[in-house]
Amino acid sequence: MTDSTLPAHDLASLRARLRAFARERDWEQFHSPKNLAMALIVEAAELLEPFQWLTQEQSLSLDPETRRAVAEEIGDVLIYLVRLADVLDIDPLEAAFAKLEINARKYPVDKARGHSRKYDQLR
User: Fold this and answer.
1) Mind listing the domains of the chain with CATH numbers?
2) pLDDT per residue over 40-95, tens digit each?
3) What is the C-alpha separation between 38 and 70, in angstroms, rounded?
4) Buried b (16+ CB within 10 A) or exposed e, 64-73
5) Which residues, at least 6 apart from 77, have a Cβ–Cβ distance to it below 8 Å?
């Protein structure tokens, strides 16, 4: 059961809050698709930093401070991705499900299971 006094936590609500956030600050003028895509890549690169120099095993069990840092960067990446999608009027969930269907055709289970070869190297 959810508390009706809490803000909704769904993609549509996030999109609306980001739109309002930008509008209140007069940032829409800076939110071109090019600028948002560039900011998204910067934030995605920052997501790598907490994992730098960790082993595979260490990356699976982060200490609380590192986990918090990763969560903040994931938030930044999602914010820019949702804002970019909004500016371009693309439904990110629709785009993701469509891409998943494409990937399912490119990587059939019987050929891709258990290895990481690219689709054009599957036999």
Assistant:
1) 33-112 (1.10.287.1080)
2) 999 999 999 999 999 999 999 999 999 999 999 999 999 999 999 999 999 999 99
3) 20
4) eebeebbeeb
5) 40, 43, 44, 47
